[in-house]
Design brief:
The complex is a heterodimer of chains A (373) and B (255). Chain A has 373 residues and is an all-alpha fold. Chain A has a single domain, classed as ABC transporter involved in vitamin B12 uptake, BtuC (Orthogonal Bundle), CATH 1.10.3470. Helix content of chain A is 64%, strand content 2%. In chain A, the strands form two sheets. A two-stranded antiparallel ribbon of chain A has the order 1-2. Chain A has a two-stranded antiparallel sheet with strand order 3-4. In chain A, helix 2 packs parallel to helix 8 and helix 8 crosses helix 9. The longest helix of chain A has 27 residues. The radius of gyration of chain A is 23 Å and the shape is globular. Chain A starts with 25 loop residues before the first helix and ends with a helix. Chain B has 255 residues and is an alpha/beta fold. Chain B has a single domain, classed as Rossmann fold. Chain B is 32% helix and 27% strand. In chain B, a hairpin with a 2-residue loop joins strand 4 and strand 5. The chains are: A mainly alpha (373), B alpha/beta (255). Chains A and B meet through helix 9 and helix 10 of A and helix 2, strand 8, helix 5 and helix 6 of B.
């Protein structure tokens, strides 16, 4: 009577295939990326052009470098934000403020990156006096990260301790941060950074970071994006931080009951998302050499779209950083693809909206099919 | 008496004007398995929620392991050694079995605050061990438990409780939603606890199960304990008459 039976567990009439490991979604998303690229290549070939390749004889190179550069830049700048947004969504929250944070952080950061003299004349866009100009490059970078961290901290505390829905908390931050970016310099752009600040995005960053071991004159934001993506993929899989993020997004009550400090963890995740928006702002201003109050407009939705396309579930608990990276690539390919087939910008916006909705529908459909085989 | 693991004296809980639990005096001895039975709303779950500190009692005392205790919450109770399987499963559906078993008590390779490095192999190995001692069969522990049947998920929840059980296990209707075979499996886990000498309070509606598993049966009716009967000295009809109020006045009975 007290001996455990050796029968296998019953499954209550549910079909359950023991060998069917819930396979990573990421391969499907990668396949979709390849398929979309092929579709645009074909559509372009019909018109005698190419999506990926360089068909012009007077320009060297196998690929259409101009288009690739635009795509890579977009993936990197918005993708860095999406890395943070992904973690927030996996946590079961949402972050609508990231785009506005880029705007506000860009304005403030750029103000600390200005150079005193432009072609021998005083900086026409000066925000501070000359004693606050020509600062070492580390100062605007630290200021940028600090701005992002500060705003993310507020987001996190609002969500964790006032218990208001993340949608509302970050919506408030979205509006306030946009207001702050307009207030900062009365709506005028902040321009003319120091030369060293410009090299953050445009110089040989890889060479600086590796003390001259490696050199690359390509897109620095892409280097930073890839490095951050690898870092957070590892963190999400191998550390307590990742485990708890998935656990809270999966079942917050269970996480709480298991002794996880849910509130503190939420603050941490939102803070990291804010910091990543700060990183993005630094790279963007360094790339464009100017900051405007409208910078980062709608980036929050692009970032959410990237995550959702990449298989991150808006109901929390599911998704991955790798998925978001692939989602970012798909998103960027679609936008560039529409440009390449000369689709109007208006249509692009409309299609963007449809993609977001479509990705969520797909996610819910997947969810329904996945639950209990 | 040092062999008393859990004792409540005059435990009382009001919800507003409703007296859900009234003057419950209960004793659980070391190694003893006790079933708590009663009709819906008789106070069984309320009783359990006071012991596990999910709710705070209105009045009365709880003695656990020789000391009077007043746990601030379920977590404090768990840390003190009271492991509970809740009626609503406390599992994270998107995590695999080891992650669920070790949720909130992870094993690390090295510690670095929130970025502490998980020792996934150790957790997996100990999960397999725990599943083996509790005789739970899960085909693939690396799957998110979302993909598993209700019974398998319940087994994971119970294995989690059983694996970490140190002083007392409380199960609130552990087989309520399970099929026949799954119920048998859960009952095997409970027998395993008995063999290991871990005391248990089982809340159940299933009298057949109660008579199969426990040493003593405590009957709740209208928020009060109306009977405490040794399994060998009673039978189903007897219990039912206490549950329905045919037998036993609602006062004076001690558990």
């Amino acid at each position: 009577m007290s001996k455990p039976t050796s029968q296998p567990t019953g499954t209550g009439g549910q079909k359950y295939d023991a060998t069917k490991r819930a396979r990573a979604n990421e391969w499907n998303i990668f396949a979709a990326l390849v398929a979309i690229v092929i579709v645009f290549e074909v559509l372009n070939r019909v018109n005698g052009t190419s999506f990926l390749f360089n068909l012009r004889d007077n320009v060297p190179g196998l690929f259409n470098q101009q288009r690739l550069d635009i795509m890579i830049l977009q993936v990197a700048i918005t993708g860095i934000i999406a890395l943070g947004v992904t973690q927030v969504i996996i946590l079961g929250g949402i972050d609508l403020s990231s785009g506005s944070l880029v705007g506000a952080t860009a304005m403030i950061t750029m103000s600390f990156a200005q150079t005193a003299l432009v072609n021998g004349n005083p900086n026409p866009k000066a925000v501070f006096g000359p004693e606050w100009m020509d600062l070492p490059v580390i100062i605007p970078i630290v200021v940028g990260l600090a701005c992002g961290i500060f705003a993310g901290l507020i987001n996190g505390m609002l969500v964790a301790y006032t218990k208001i829905p993340p949608f509302i908390a970050t919506l408030g931050m979205m509006v306030s941060a946009r207001g702050a970016s307009r207030w900062w310099s009365n709506g005028t752009p902040v321009s003319f950074p120091t030369e060293t600040y410009a090299t953050v995005s445009n110089g040989d960053l890889l060479g600086t970071l590796t003390f001259g071991l490696l050199h690359w004159d390509g897109q620095n934001p892409a280097v930073v994006f890839v490095a951050l993506a690898v870092l957070f993929q590892v963190i999400m899989i191998y550390t307590l931080y990742g485990k708890h993020t998935y656990a809270i997004g999966s079942n917050e009550a269970a996480a709480r009951m298991s002794g996880i400090n849910v509130d503190r963890h939420k603050v941490l995740v939102y803070t990291i998302a804010g910091m990543l928006a700060g990183v993005s702002a630094v790279l963007l201003t360094s790339k464009n050499l100017t900051a405007q109050a409208g910078m980062g407009m709608m980036y929050e939705l692009d970032a959410i779209a990237m995550a959702v396309i990449g298989g991150v579930s808006l109901s929390g608990g599911r998704g991955s950083i790798v998925g978001t990276v692939l989602g970012a690539a798909i998103f960027s390919v679609i936008i560039s693809g529409f440009t390449s087939i000369k689709l109007d910008a208006y249509y692009q916006e409309m299609v963007k909206g449809a993609i977001i909705v479509g990705a969520v529908i797909l996610d819910q459909w997947r969810q329904k099919n996945r639950t209990r085989g | 008496m040092s062999d008393i693991i859990l004792e409540t004296r005059g435990l009382t809980k009001h919800y507003g004007g409703v007296q859900a639990l009234d003057d419950a005096n209960f004793i659980l001895h070391a190694g003893e398995h006790v079933a708590v039975v009663g009709d819906n709303g008789a106070g069984k779950s309320t009783f359990v929620r006071q012991i596990t500190a999910v709710e705070q009692r209105t009045a009365g005392q709880i003695f656990f392991d020789g000391k009077e205790v007043s746990h601030a919450g379920p977590l404090a109770a768990r840390e003190a050694g009271i492991e509970t399987v809740f009626q609503t499963l406390a599992l994270a559906d998107d995590l695999d079995v080891p992650s669920n078993l070790f949720l909130g008590r992870e094993i690390f390779k090295f510690r670095l605050g929130p970025f502490s490095w998980l020792d996934r192999k150790a957790m997996r190995d100990r999960t397999m061990e725990a599943l083996k001692t509790t005789a739970v069969k899960i085909p693939n522990v690396d799957n998110p438990i979302r993909n598993m049947s209700g019974g398998q998920r319940q087994c994971v929840a119970i294995a989690r409780t059983a694996a970490f059980a140190s002083k007392l296990v409380i199960m609130d209707e552990p087989t309520a939603a399970l099929g026949v075979q799954e119920t048998a499996q859960v009952e095997n886990i409970i027998r395993g606890l008995k063999e290991r000498g871990i005391p248990m309070v089982l809340v159940s509606h299933n009298l057949r199960q109660v008579f199969d598993l426990v040493d003593r049966i405590v009957v709740f009716r209208r928020g009060r304990i109306v009977a405490s009967l040794k399994r060998d000295e009673t039978d189903g009809n007897d219990i039912v008459s206490y549950i329905t109020g045919v037998k036993g006045s609602a006062d004076g009975a001690y558990a």
